[in-house]
Amino acid sequence: MSDLSASEYPTFFKNLSQRVQAKEVSSLHVLGEDFFSLVDTFSQQLFEEFQGDLLLLEMEPESFLWELQVLTNQFLRKSIDSPLQLRPFCRQLRQQMQNPTFANEIYSMLKKNYQDHFYQVPQSQLLV
User: Fold this and answer.
1) How many helices (H) does the chain have, and how many strands (E)?
2) Do residues 37 and 94 touch, judged by C-beta distance below 8 A?
């Protein structure tokens, strides 16, 4: 399989805009530029690292990227206590990502989140 680039596919904002009603698209801007930038950056990094999983997961690249965008969106939202904290949190996180050590820690958490999301076997399916 040749290496694919996530940048060839729609951004999270564009993907989300296609999935919500037209009147809701303008309200997406309230999430802030930092939020959308982080979702795109993180999901593209995951896409590039794990694109070899496409066949195993039986997904098309576009669907895989969308799943990664949703996963990253959830990761960011679960990192805060209140929706009002999302914009300031994302602004600060985006600034802190300039620190390579911090960025590696965040990316390690995202990779674990990826593994849990796609490969965690539900307790009910475990052979005990």
Assistant:
1) 7, 0
2) yes
Q: How many domains does the chain have?
A: 1
pTM assigned to the model: 0.85
- CA–CA dist 56, 71 (Å, integer): 18
Residue 125 lies in a domain: no
Residue 4 lies in a domain: no
Is residue 109 in some structural domain?
yes
**Domain coverage including residue 58:** 10-119
Q: Give per-residue pLDDT as tens, 87-123.
A: 999 999 999 999 999 999 999 999 999 998 888 755 5
Q: Which helix (H) or strand (E) holds 63?
A: helix 61-78
What is the per-residue pLDDT for 4?
A: 59
Q: What is the mean pLDDT of residues 28-45?
A: 94
Distance between CA 33 and CA 90 in Å, rounded? 9
User: Does residue 60 belong to any structural domain of this protein?
Assistant: yes
